[in-house]
Structures are given as C-alpha cells and as structure tokens.
Amino acid sequence: MIGDSLEHYFTNNSNLKSELRTILYEKKGFVFTFFSDLGVFSKNHLDYGSRLLIDNIIENENKITNILDVGCGYGLLGIVLGKIYNCPVTMSDVNKRCIHLSNMNIEKNKIMGQALLSDCYSNITGTYDLIVTNPPIKAGKKIVFNILDEAYKYLNKNGHLWFVMRKDHGAKSMLKLIENRYTCEIICKSKGFYVIKAKIR
At what angle do helices 76-85 and 96-108 cross, to 10 degrees? Predict the structure, then answer.
C-alpha cells in the first residue's frame, strides 16, 4: 500500500489535502517563483538531480526552439529552460495536481507554454528540439523505459533527449536498454546522479 507521503509521482488522490507553498530559484539572472503542494515530487525544495540536469543542458545546448518536459511535476525543468532559451515549452504529467501547479507556474513566471495531462506521450503531438525528464522512478522501470524509449517519436532531426538518473536507481542498466535507439553520452556524474544526453541513432 502506498501512503499519502509517497503519492506524488503517478497517482491522483482526490482526498489529498492541499498545503500550497512557494519555492524560489535563481538562474542566469532570472528569479523564478514556483508554487508547490503536497503530493508532488520534491515539494519543499528544488531537487539536486533536476538542478544538475538544468546546469548541464545550459552548458551544452545553444539554440533551442521548443522544449518538451515529460513528467514535469510542478514545472521546474520546462519553466527554467523555457525562460533561459526564450522558447515555448510543453509540459506533461499524469498527476492532475502537477498540471494545475505547472500552469500556475507558467503564468507566474511568464513562460510561453502549456501543461497537459498525459500518460507519457498519450496527449503529445509535434516534435521538439529538446525533450527533458527527471523520470518518476517510483512509477516503475517499465514507465521510465517508456518515457525514454518513446521520446524518439517526438524529437526533431537534430534534437536531444536529456535525462537524469541515480546510479543506484538503475542508470547504467537503463542506458543498455535504450542503446539500440539512441547514441547516449554521460555528460556528468555527481553525488550518484548521472546526467545523460541521447540522440537518435
């Protein structure tokens, strides 16, 4: 049985109470305000893996015309990257509260974009220069694999999939599972996290 404290990645608990809070973050001269709540990943702070992912994308990617953030939570990755690259962002999550928060945060931070309720890519159309995800490990290996493996259908010709995973959550084994689809490069290793850049073979 999953307790309320763990119901954040992939469940919709209509009985879960709301305790809205705000998180501040500064990057590249921009100050971001994020609304967060119970029932979402990393509700009280910006998690290290996501911040590491943002840092490495900024260091390695130049012009980006659009972004897809899969499993967006309250929208950290997509909103920060959308602001920095000054481009539209589509964000998706299976959690209704995450979508509500992400749309609030899009408006609050004046981002071009939208957040859509979507089971992986079920409601996603179009293709993107950048697909980014901090995949929901607790949703299970199959879901994480689907997010990574199916991304190729939504990547532009020269687009990249970027993701972050902990070594002890199976980063190396996941790389082996998707290597037939992508050329993968481990861009950074830090505190057990791997930041990975993938391009369609």
Answer: 30
